[in-house]
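Bug #77: duplicate submission created two jobs. Keeping one. Sequence:
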Amino acid sequence: MTSGNMIRDTRDAMTSSSSREQALVRVADAGYTYPSGTAALSGVTLEVRPHEVLGIVGPSGCGKSTLLRIIAGLVSPTSGTITGPGENSDAQLDMAMVFQADTVMPWITVEKNAGMYSQFQPLSVRRRTASARRARIRELLQMVGLDHCARSYPYQLSGGERRRLAFVTAVAASPRILLLDEPFASVDEPTRVQIHQDVLEVIHKLRMTVVLVTHDLAEAATLCDRVLVMTRRPGAVCREHTISFGPDRDVVALRQTSEFLAEYGELWRDLSAQTGRADAP
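Kept job's structure:
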């Protein structure tokens, strides 16, 4: 089956998903208008399902980051509804967010950065002994290749290491849903590919639910189980891609396969329809 055969109209996807696992988040016909009067989103409908990596791509300025903030409960839609962990302030503790901008604390060590949100962890985690919490942080740092610099300060890290640290800091809080807003865009392509492998291993080992906003179609095809394509502003979801590479995918090997190139091409063509660009070569 080609990747094109796995693309569905958004309404069909929402109907068929009713027989699947209970969604953690549902956004129904949501819109958002800025105070200036500019409409950012219109009629957005989507579901976030347990233990999946959901990607969101679309033209620049189509409201991807605004949609992520609505899911997080940081802003409220001006129309439509959202149900799930982000629908009230208390439930925001079920989520953690990693931004594109650097948010690590430069005056504390890598290890302390990674554990700084321990007060937001579930009660069962907070009840662990201090040594158990430290052991968990060390395990997470090891999983993303930062265990050798646990006592270093952020200024001593490379750009890629700082992005790994920002990711671990969010993961260490044991969120129910992890929201990623173009978190690896600032690093070079070879480093980004290496980070992708580490991130995939952490996500699947911890059985996390992730929503990833990205402009990088290769990143979307590499990391995600489903990818939603948005229209130009005001943004709405126009297409859904099911990515069938499986949880144990090898990032480097995957990118050399014809299946990956086909999936990338399908994403490119759908995005091109919204941006007016030519088809992928």
